[in-house]
Each structure stands twice: as C-alpha cells, then as structure tokens.
Write a structure and sequence with these properties.
Keywords: ATP-binding, Ligase, Nucleotide-binding
Number of helices: 16
Pfam family, one: AMP-binding
CATH topology of the largest domain: Rossmann fold
Protein name: AMP-dependent synthetase
Number of strands: 27
Structural class: alpha/beta
GO molecular function: ATP binding; CoA-ligase activity
Family: Belongs to the ATP-dependent AMP-binding enzyme family.
C-alpha cells in the first residue's frame, strides 16, 4: 500500500458554496471572474451577493432540498454563480455537455430525476426538446434573456428571503456529473459536498493558489476537471478566473497575453498546440508560471517540447477521474523541475493507493511492477445514482475504487500510468463509451453488427474506431453514411472517426467482444 507524503487533511464539513465562497468577503473588490472575450468582470463581493440573491429566487420558484437541477451551458462568468446558487438552494447540480443532442440530454434528465434546467439562449431549443422528451421538468431558466423564460439576470432583483438549508455535507449530493466509469453507458456520479470540498483541501498543498494568480478557464466547467481546477479551487483561494466559452487557439493565446495569465490547466491537445502551432510565436506568454495537463495521457516528449518553447518549468501532470471528485495525484508546483518525465504525480493528502496484479487482483505489487491502480480516500464517490451493482463493481467492500488504469510507481512514489484495462475511449479528455456507440450503430438498418475501440490518429489523439459488419442487403453502405448517421445523434466528441468493414465481430463464448483482436487490425 502506498500513502501520501502529505499530512492528512480533516474532512471539510461544509456545503460546497461555503467551502468555496466562505472567504469572499475577505477578497471583496478583487476580480473573481473575468469574461476573456469582452472583459466583463465580477468581483468576489458580487459573486457572493449574486449567488445568494439567485438562491433566494430559485427557492422562491419552488426548488427544494433534494431536487436535481441541470446546468446546461458553455463556460461563462454566470456558470459559477448559477452552480453555487443552486447548491445553496439545496439542489444537486447535474452538469450537461452544452453540445449534447436533445436525446442525450433527455436521457440524463430522466436518469437524474432533474426537475429544473438552467441554460443559455443559444442552447434553448435543445433544452426545450430534451425537456419534452424526458418529461417532469418544471421550469427552464436562462442565464441571459429569452422570451417566455425567466432570466437569472432579472431574478437577481428578487426580494425573497435567502434559503436556510440544513445540509449534511457527508450525505447530501452537491454535483451529479455523468461518467461512463470504466465502461458502459454514462452513469450519474454522486459527489457529496464533503467529497468535493475535501478534495479541494487535499489539492491545496501541492498546487497552492491565491490573490494575484490568474487562471485561464478554457476546459469546460461541466467536466469535473474544469469544475475543480478552474472554478472551485481558484475561487476558494482568491485567485482570478478568466473564462473562455470554447477553445480557439488564437483567442486562447490572446487571453493569456491580455489578462497576464499565470497558470494553465489543460488537456494534451492544447499542449500540442502550444508546442507546435506557429501562432504561438506572435503572442507574449511571459506571464505564465506553470502548465498542468490532465484528463488524458501526455507524451513526455511533447511535454518537454512545449516547456522548452514557452521557457517554462517542465509541464506537470495530474491524475484522477470523475468518481474521485476528481483528484488523486499531481506533480507539485515546487517539484516540476525534478519530477521524472512522464509521471502523473504523487498521491495528494489523505489518499492511499494499491497497485495490484492483473492476474491475481488480491496480490499487491512492488514499485516498478505494473498493475491496476486502486484508490482509497475521502474523495471516493458516494456511488452511481440508482446503480448499486455498478457501484459495487467499482468500489470493493474495503473501500478501494478500482480505476481500470494500469500503472506503476517508482521508488520515490511517482506514479506512471501506462495503459488501461477499461474499454473507455478518451477523445481529447472526454469519455466515450464503446458500448454506447455500438448500441447506436446497431440501430442503422444496414448494420448487422458493430464494435468500437480506441485508436490513435496522426495527432496522437485517441479516437473512436468502429468495426462494422454490413447487412447482406447493404453491400453498398459506405463510411460517410455511417459517420453522418452517428454524427447526427451524438455530441461531437463521440463521433466515429474511423471505420473498418469486417465480416464478423470477434467474440468470446460469453459474447464479450474481443477488442484485443480488433486492435491488431489498427
């Protein structure tokens, strides 16, 4: 068993809005959130006051403790206010990909039991359609303005009393993001107030932040990585978060230059752009002090090229998953220069890890030997919503969460993730479940059977690669028709990006797809 070198941190027994904004008065007029495109700024005093007024308005609208509210929005400076207002009103927030199709959105609404939606006017039609498909939605609010819908801006004028909710941080669900776990369809991950808040405290020693730090939030807040690293963590310590709604390299670089960004939390495709794109040379990025990459494996050579080009310390990495609130490992900022290349870091405070044999899961392995990574700590999720069997498959009776990742630890405690047991595909940091795409492909009348695996493209990104068996009557079925069929029904990152036609899908006697055989075709 491996234990963190850091002293344990006590559980944070606070609702997440108090854990993050409890010191807002201390930071007062300092900028909390800045719109990276037009410069609109909210101070800490405003974020605190606005989220309290909005919580009062939401409670007045009928939101009660235990309700689920779906937050469906790209990154904006309104997103954090909406999130903390909803939790202060007692709701659990299920975050929704802004580009989810109405059908995908509806599945999440129905599965989570959501009764309320907060969206933005450009996404309103998708939200309305999803609400119709799911049923049970009481009201759709908008962050900006749209005819027929109450605006959060107008609701700030509410004179209703601020709700006084009796929270149990250890049991009450703050966030309900959806994850495919190690495989299968997306499931609601129940993260309590205490789990998320304690994870922030665990991450603080290795990656401290404070007033004067400026963090660029381009990774989505709806994803647990963005929610923690780009929203909760910096706002908890008085840093300034500069918000971008989507990644565009030139806009991203301009924001670093114009807002004097000091820290970046990114995924590997952004590291690739920083390392190789000619546009980087046209911007002054000298304010940057560090870059941390997570959400997917980062090639050590690419990381070194990026750091050299930017004149920065080596690029650090972090490791975790939605089911872990999400963090378990990070390269400490004060160790960037001497961390071994390719490591995802060391255990954060209060976290334990085992590396167990793939052949004998009860056998713990020594440093240097690769095996499955198991994690135990206060950040382990409460479980999957409504899926006790899936929860039991993920977390054993001793509290160890089985990540499905293969890694090894060196003698100094640095973790290296080398492969995945799980079938989950990570396209640019987003989770794509093969089973979900396989089920969709089989709805095409010309497809007799299908299997999906992760394969790497020329840019080093893992992509969904479909192996398709045509129906005898569909001999002329082509790649483009299949790709378009999938693209019309899923969010962009789930699109099938490569197709191979085969005669049969290899399967074990149990019916399980033999993905290893398919990988031999790639």
């Amino acid at each position: 068993m491996f234990r963190s070198e850091y002293a344990d941190v006590p559980p944070v027994e606070l609702p997440i809005h108090e854990a993050v904004l409890g010191r807002a008065a201390d930071f007062g007029d300092q900028p909390a959130l800045i719109d990276g495109t037009d410069g609109t700024t909210l101070t800490y005093e405003q974020v605190d006051r606005f989220h309290r007024r909005l919580a009062a308005a939401l409670a007045d609208a009928g939101i009660r403790k235990g309700d689920v509210l779906a937050l469906h929005s790209p990154n904006t400076i309104a997103f954090p206010t909406a999130f903390y207002a909803a939790t202060r009103a007692g709701a659990s927030v299920t975050t929704v990909h802004p580009l989810a199709t109405p059908e995908e959105f509806a599945k999440q609404l129905a599965d989570s039991g959501a009764r309320w939606i907060i969206t933005v006017s450009p996404l309103l039609e998708s939200a309305r359609r999803a609400a119709e498909l799911a049923g049970g939605i009481r009201e759709i609010f908008v962050c900006d303005n749209a005819p027929g819908h109450r605006s959060l801006i107008d609701m700030l004028a509410s004179a209703a009393p601020e709700p006084q909710i009796d929270f149990d941080p250890a049991e009450d669900i703050a966030a309900l993001p959806y994850s495919s776990g190690t495989t299968g369809i997306p499931k609601g991950v129940m993260l309590t107030h205490r789990q998320i808040a304690t994870n922030l405290a665990q991450l603080e020693p290795p990656v401290p932040a404070g007033p004067g730090d400026r963090i660029l939030a381009v990774l989505p807040f709806f994803h647990i990585y963005g929610l923690t690293a780009l929203m909760n963590a910096p706002l908890r310590k008085g840093a300034t978060v500069v918000v971008l709604p989507r990644f565009d390299l030139e806009t991203f670089l301009a924001a670093i230059e114009n807002h004097r960004i000091t820290g970046l939390y990114v995924a590997p495709p952004i590291v690739l752009g920083l390392a190789k794109h000619p546009a980087v040379a046209r911007y002054d990025l000298s304010s940057l002090k560090y870059v941390i990459s997570a959400a997917a494996p980062l090639d050590a050579t690419l990381a070194a090229a990026c750091a050299e080009r930017l004149g920065l310390p080596p690029i650090g990495q972090a490791y975790g998953m939605t089911e872990l609130s999400p963090g378990t490992h990070v390269v400490p900022l004060d160790a960037l220069h001497h961390a071994p290349p390719g490591t995802v870091g060391k255990l954060i405070a209060g976290t334990e890890m085992r590396i167990v044999s793939l052949d004998d899961p009860g056998k713990d392995l020594a440093p240097g030997d690769p095996g499955e990574i198991l994690i135990r700590g206060p950040q382990v999720m409460k479980g999957y919503l409504g899926r006790p069997d899936a929860t039991a498959d993920m977390i054993d009776t001793d509290g160890w969460l089985h990540t499905g990742d293969i890694g090894h630890v060196d003698e100094d405690g640095w973790l290296f993730v080398v492969d995945r047991v799980k079938e989950l595909i990570k396209y640019k940091g987003f989770q794509v479940a093969p089973a979900e795409l396989e089920a969709l492909l089989l709805t095409h009348p010309g497809i007799a059977d299908a299997a999906v695996i992760g394969a790497y493209n020329d840019d080093g990104n893992e992509i969904p690669h479909a192996f398709v068996v045509r129906q005898p009557t569909a001999a002329d079925l082509g790649e483009n028709e299949i790709m378009l069929y999938v693209a019309e029904r899923v969010v962009p990152y789930k699109r099938v990006r490569r197709i191979t036609f085969i005669n049969t899908v290899p399967r074990a006697a149990s019916g399980k797809i033999l993905r290893r055989q398919l990988r031999e075709h790639t």
